[in-house]
């Protein structure tokens, strides 16, 4: 099982005018984790995380879901562990 890291330091989300920049993105198979740079009210930088599962629908079109099955658990664990390790290494 291999995790692919996609560095997205300068990118912004497309969902908002004041979107949080993407810190990094990890992918393992159809599971992806995006880490978002956010600031607290006192100016401290924190990371928010979002998880998605990509799949093909009956027509062959790619879709994303935030619902997972038991077969996704090892991939979810691996991207979460990699994200945690990456953040801890950056703190040192």
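Q: What amino acid sequence fits the structure above?
A:
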């Amino acid at each position: 099982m291999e995790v692919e890291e996609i560095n997205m330091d300068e990118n912004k989300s497309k969902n908002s005018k004041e979107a949080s920049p993407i810190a990094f993105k990890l992918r393992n198979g159809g599971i992806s984790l995006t880490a978002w740079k956010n600031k607290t009210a006192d100016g401290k930088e924190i990371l928010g995380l979002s998880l998605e599962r990509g799949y093909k629908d009956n027509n062959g079109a790619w879709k994303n879901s935030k619902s997972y099955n038991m077969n996704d658990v090892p991939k979810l664990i691996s991207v979460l562990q990699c994200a945690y390790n990456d953040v801890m290494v950056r703190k040192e």
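Q: And what stands out in the fold?
A: The radius of gyration is 14 Å.
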